[in-house]
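Pinned message: reference record for Reverse transcriptase domain-containing protein
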Amino acid sequence: METIIRYKLVTFLEENIMISNYQHGFRNKRSCLTNLLDFYNDVFNIYDKTKTVDIISLEFQKAFDKILHKRLLKTN
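Predicted structure (tokens):
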């Protein structure tokens, strides 16, 4: 039952463009590797056009634990 619900939900979200193309986790045919390859592709495309690329990388430890879940689930 859980598999059916997940499939229907993900299909709905993808068809209605409610999931960003940058979201690779927990999606079919996407992984950390595809995310990294997309990132490198974007960087090289920008570099080819501008010859300059700035990247800022942030790491949030236990980010999910620090989210205000009531605010996250709020519909408005």
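Pinned by admin. Summary line: The radius of gyration is 17 Å.
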